Amino acid sequence: MDTSSIEEKAAAIRKEFYAFRNGMIADTLRKGGLEQKYIFGLQLPQIKDISVRYRPDNEDDSAALAKLLWNDTECREARLLACHLMPPDTMTKEEAQEWAEGILTREEADILAFRLLRHLPFKSELANYLEGAESELKKYTATAIRRFI
Question: Which residues have CB under 8 Å from 140's CB, separation 6+?
């Protein structure tokens, strides 16, 4: 895996976020309670299109790019895009649990559950684990997983 090419793709993706930014949507999301530092206001079809254009050719690189984007907790679009890029076949139970525990918004919970978690062989086990959590957001994520199964 060439980490420089992963970094280059991530930088190109961030440029796409800037190019497609929608201030009205971003402002609405902020007023609605999103607290992330960077909210570009991209719509889900735009995020999906970016995922198609920037998806690496092999699963290892795609997983590396997805993890890099998921770790960018300050950018709404990076986290949502990560859900599109992470290959379900490469995600371990521990990684799935870590991602689910790190969810920041209901939107992330829905997209993560729909695009990724529902495809995992241990999805029911993950939902059971999250249902037992104290956090309302984790419980919501469990519900989202079950909704999309």
Answer: 106, 109
Report the candidate in 135, 147, 148, 146 with the shortest Cα–Cα distance to residue 104: 135
Token pair in block for residue 50: 């970016």
Other CB atoms within a 10 A radius of the CB of residue 116 amount to: 23
Q: Please state at what angle helix 3-19 crosses helix 44-54, rounded to 10 degrees.
A: 150
- Going by the DSSP 8-state scheme, the letter that residue 119 receives in this structure is G
Measured on CA atoms in the order 110, 104, 28, 40, is the torsion positive or negative? negative
Contact 36, 73 (CB under 8 A): yes
Closest-CA residue to 80 (of 125, 120, 29): 29
- 55-82 mean pLDDT: 97
Measured between alpha carbons, how far is 45 from 100 in angstroms, rounded to an integer?
A: 23
Q: How confident is the model at residue 4 (pLDDT cuts 50, 70, 90)?
A: confident
Please give the pLDDT value at position 61: 96
Q: Which helix (H) or strand (E) holds 66?
A: helix 59-70
3: pLDDT strictly greater than 80: no
